[in-house]
Amino acid sequence: MSQPGVSSPQQFSLEVDVPPDAIVVRCSGRLMGESGNILRSEVHKLIKPGGRIVLDLTNVTHCDSMGLGAVISLYVTSKSTGCRLELINLGQKVRQLFSMANLLSLFEAAADSTARIP
């Protein structure tokens, strides 16, 4: 099952797939400013106790502090709800940003670019 993508003027889009074991959110484009708000609001709707959400960042070309803040906000909400939030396929620049902010360890298990999409 798939929901239509959500786009913004910053060329950011989301595609949501719902296989049996996890919700996969494929992100594309620049994750910054308003696109961070789009990510936060769309994924927030998917957070459920006992759930598992995988953010696939394969096609994210740029992420700034606002995008980082959106991901961290989702992580905090997920954790407090009892939902697992995982990141996969972080590009080098995105990985570097998470590393500089000392946040990579929160997602270490799923942060490897060789991780399998569920």
Overview of the molecule:
By secondary structure, the chain is α/β, with parallel strands linked by helices. Helix content is 31%, strand content 31%. The protein has helices spanning 34-44, 65-81, 92-100, and strands at 2-7, 13-17, 23-31, 52-63, 84-88. A five-stranded mixed sheet has the order 1-2-3-4-5.
Give keywords.
disordered C terminus, single chain, 5 strands, 31% helix, 118 residues, alpha/beta, Transcription Regulator spoIIAA, five-stranded mixed beta sheet
Quick description:
This protein is α/β, with parallel strands linked by helices and 118 residues long.
What is the strand and helix layout of this fold?
Elements: E1 2-7, E2 13-17, E3 23-31, H1 34-44, E4 52-63, H2 65-81, E5 84-88, H3 92-100
Parallel strand pairs: 3-4, 4-5
Antiparallel strand pairs: 1-2, 2-3
CATH topology: Transcription Regulator spoIIAA
Strand order of the largest sheet: 1-2-3-4-5
How many domains? The number is 1
* Portion of residues within helices: 25-40%
Note the beta-strand portion.
25-35%
If classified by CATH, what would the architecture be?
2-Layer Sandwich
Distance N to C terminus: 14 Å
Q: How are helices and strands ordered from N to C?
A: EEEHEHEH
Mean pLDDT: 84
Counting DSSP H or I runs of 4 or more residues, the number of helices is 3
CATH superfamily: STAS domain
Question: Class, according to the CATH hierarchy?
Answer: Alpha Beta
> Could you give the count of β-strands?
5
Low-confidence stretches are 6-10, 110-118
Structural class: alpha/beta
Biggest β-sheet description: 5 strands, mixed
If you compute it from the alpha carbons, what radius of gyration comes out, rounded to the nearest whole angstrom? 13 Å
- Backbone shape: globular
